[in-house]
Amino acid sequence: MAVPPSLFPFPTSDERDDALSAWLDGELPAERRAEVDAWLQANPEEAARVRLWAADRDALRARLVSTASEPVPDRLQQLVLQHAPEAATPWWRGRGQWAAALAVFALGGLIGAGAMWRVQPARAVVAQAPAGSWVQRAALAHSVYVPEQRHPVEVAVAGRTAEESRAQEEHLSRWLTRRLNVPVKLFDLREQGYELVGGRLLPDGNGAGPGAQLMYQAAGGTARVTVYLRKPDEAAPAAFRFERDGDVNLFYWVEAGTGYALAGSLPREQLLALAEAIYRQQPTPAASAPK
Amino acid sequence: MSVPASFRQQLLGTIPRLRRYARSLLIDAAAADDLVQTALERALSHWHQFDQQRDILVWVISIAHNAHMDTLRRGGRLAIVDPHELQVEQDLRGSDPGADVGLRMDLIAALRRLPVEQREPLLLVSVEELSYAECAEVLRIPIGTVMSRISRGRAALRALLDGHAPAPAVQTLRRVV
Fold this sequence. Notes:
The structure holds two protein chains of two kinds.
Chain A: H1 13-24, H2 30-42, H3 44-64, H4 74-82, H5 95-111, H6 113-119, H7 134-145, E1 155-156, H8 162-180, E2 194-202, E3 211-218, E4 224-230, E5 241-245, E6 248-255, E7 258-264, H9 268-281
Antiparallel strand pairs in A: 1-2, 2-3, 3-4, 4-7, 5-6, 6-7
Chain B: H1 5-26, H2 29-45, H3 56-74, E1 78-81, H4 83-95, H5 107-113, H6 116-126, H7 132-139, H8 143-162, E2 173-176
Parallel strand pairs in B: 1-2
Helix pairs in contact in B: 1-2, 1-3, 2-3, 3-7, 6-7, 6-8, 7-8
């Protein structure tokens, strides 16, 4: 394509058109803009062409702009207000992180669980749990059962009398211990202001046997936290880790052949206090039931 | 895990402009609302990926763009075309007197004839008044590409309205690499 001198300062007609179009959209830097202004003054035919583009733009706007003021169909409004997407969450993607986490777990075993405990909480990593991990299932189980008003647990511990409650607690603990094949202790979080509601048995994939969920509710409140327990895939003691998903915070660790995940919509510090209480009460390796 | 109420409210606010964009892109109102629904569903299931520093409208429109491209791809109407080839093709059509259909076209009909890779940026900038940078973000293409596609789109639209230009019977979507 020949470039007539009138094209100057544009090297080609394409570049000229790009510049004129960007000029129309107010996308040119000031200096370049002034240059194009001057060029349009000197080239009235080109200026007329740009005016046509401007008219087309205005016509498009006029024809299409009013659609935005139409009332939003109820169907779309309800969709946005109520649609519960399939559990697609940010943190259980990617196997790389799982491998990294396992490496940390193994290292934790060497250093010693006690030392890790003291070191990790302060700077516990916001980790990425793997797809299909037990931590994912713990978080999922938390969000499924915590909002339940009538059936939050499978076995409730509240009895009409103190004896009845104690009997229920003993039954729950024994039942879950038998089914999980790990010692399930019902942690006492009353000092931290949480009372045990009860527990349930949950399927936990990958042939690892079932998991258990214990639910606690704030005394005189509605806030609930859950503790998820299961027999871990690897019996290695694991570092203490923190994770956040939306408004659910999670602390999880593996100790003495049991995986623990504490989930709750509480500030991290409050949840940490509960995690520490659980950690102190969990069965020690020596006291744990033989496998 | 559940979608925060504040995010739902933010998303609700984008619907009018999202619908307008979908309508301008597809013209057909029912098809446009289907696209809007798909985009909203995807936005809800990926809400955690939304960076609050960003403009939610730009984010949702880019989801709609992706959903639309998915639909076109499924329909098998997407062929990969080299940008240079595309331009040559358009230059040829533009200068071919035989391509002169001799009819002045209605604005919307002319818009529909534009290849989608020109129609989208032209609409985003002209009707939605997005900046070139935002447009580049929505379409995931460089700003320079946005600029040239808009100027090509403008020239093609004008040519259609003047009654000379490409009137392919079957609209083929090309992805310009």
